[in-house]
Write a structure and sequence with these properties.
single chain, 389 residues, alpha/beta, Aspartate Aminotransferase, domain 2, Aspartate Aminotransferase, domain 1, 2 domains, 7-stranded mixed sheet, 3-stranded antiparallel sheet, globular
């Protein structure tokens, strides 16, 4: 059994994928070929925004989005510690400072109530209100500029209060939709929920290519033009007219061709993920309170990049599944504030208790569009046996 079965998907899509790749090989436009522009139009249409700017990875999508907003040294960016390191990494790469904000215990997404406390703590320079990083320049020298909510495991964060806070405080909201492409919040699709959105096409994502890839979404024409310039070495109107510092952040044409083919079946695959997640939830509901599943609010839908549970028996379940030849993953074993790379910020071990408690109990089970009901039933059976022993 595979955690994410890309081979099963390829067997279904092989003819179309090979046709798309062969087309690129024939026309030879491997950088910024026509498939790239077609993909961008289709992505923008799917998300419901005016512009989709493709790029070389989900990390570069986040980085480019912050660069286009001129985030840099002296700026503070609020984000969650319960995410992959790239979310905070891009903040640090630009010389800005991440301000971590704890998460909601049911959705695992950033808690907007605690965001308010973090903002207040910065204004009053009072870490007793909310944990603050230790920085050489002092907190008073930092200017709050942005917030990066993370749509964890495919579930969009609660953007209505986040945007209200951001509007009041003058913050740029960058949606980290790396895991949530296909998810929705109050009738709007993930990627289009903040001032800008960034997603990833890493192979294991709900919509994945056969390498790295990403995209930024926006309705702002000027901002989109900045992103197009940044991804191509800061190019202006002429090839050797570099009007800003940029990146080599282009999406390969071959990857665009693959994504175009996968996008054709994406709605069906998303429906399959929803069905599998519902099956898991139905079977696992019998084990409550021993197992808790991620809460999906009624006005949201998840893309189910991961199906994650909480259990005090996490390690026993993990080992039992492994013994049965079933992969499971721990996303994430520790919060970003506990990572060696961020030890210099000086956060204490218990500064973000919800994140830390969830890291101790979280386990992600196999989920992909080609997972059978029999496999789901077997996984839940082994889970139940592990909890009963």
């Amino acid at each position: 059994m595979q955690f994410v079965d890309l081979q099963a998907q390829f067997e279904v899509l092989e003819q179309g994928i090979r046709t798309g790749i062969d087309s690129v090989l024939r026309h030879g436009k491997f950088i910024m070929g026509p498939e790239v522009y077609e993909l961008e139009q289709r992505l923008a249409g799917y998300v419901g925004v005016k512009y989709a700017i493709s790029c070389s990875s989900g990390t570069d999508a986040l980085l480019m989005a912050l660069m286009a907003e001129n985030i840099g040294p002296g700026d503070a960016v609020f984000t969650t510690p319960f995410t992959f390191v790239s979310t905070a990494e891009v903040i640090s790469l630009l010389g800005a400072t991440p301000i971590f904000v704890d998460i909601d215990p049911e959705t695992f997404n950033i808690d907007h109530h605690k965001l308010l406390l973090a903002i207040e703590a910065m204004k009053k320079i009072d870490p007793a209100i909310h944990p603050l990083p230790k920085v050489p320049c002092g907190i008073s020298a930092l200017k709050p500029r942005a917030v990066i909510p993370v749509d964890i495991f495919g579930l969009p964060a609660d953007y209505e209060p986040l945007l209200e806070i951001a509007g009041r405080e003058g913050l740029f909201v960058l949606e980290d939709a790396a895991q949530s492409f296909g998810g929705a919040y109050k009738g709007r699709r993930a990627g289009g929920l903040g001032h800008a959105g960034a997603t990833s096409f890493f192979p294991a994502k709900p919509l994945g290519c056969y390498g790295d890839g990403g995209a930024v979404f926006t309705d702002d024409e000027v901002y989109a033009e900045k992103l197009q310039s940044i991804r191509n070495h800061g190019q202006g109107s002429e090839k050797y007219d570099n009007i800003r510092i940029g990146l080599n952040g282009r999406l390969d044409t071959l990857q665009a061709a693959i994504l175009l083919e996968k996008l054709k079946v994406f709605p069906d695959e998303l429906a399959s993920r929803q069905k599998i997640a519902a099956k898991y939830t139905q079977l696992l509901s019998r084990h409550k309170p021993g197992v808790t599943v991620q809460h999906i609010p009624d006005d949201c839908s998840s893309a189910w990049a991961q199906y994650s549970i909480l259990s005090d028996s996490r390690d026993s379940i993990h080992n039992a599944l492994k013994k049965a030849g079933i992969p499971s993953m721990i996303y994430y074993p520790k919060g970003l504030h506990q990572q060696t790379a961020y030890s210099g910020l000086g956060f204490a071990a218990d500064d973000f208790p919800v994140t830390e408690k969830i890291c101790e109990r979280i386990l992600s089970l196999p989920i992909h569009p080609y997972l059978s009901d029999e496999h789901v039933e077997r996984i839940c059976y082994i889970l139940n046996e592990a909890m009963s022993s």
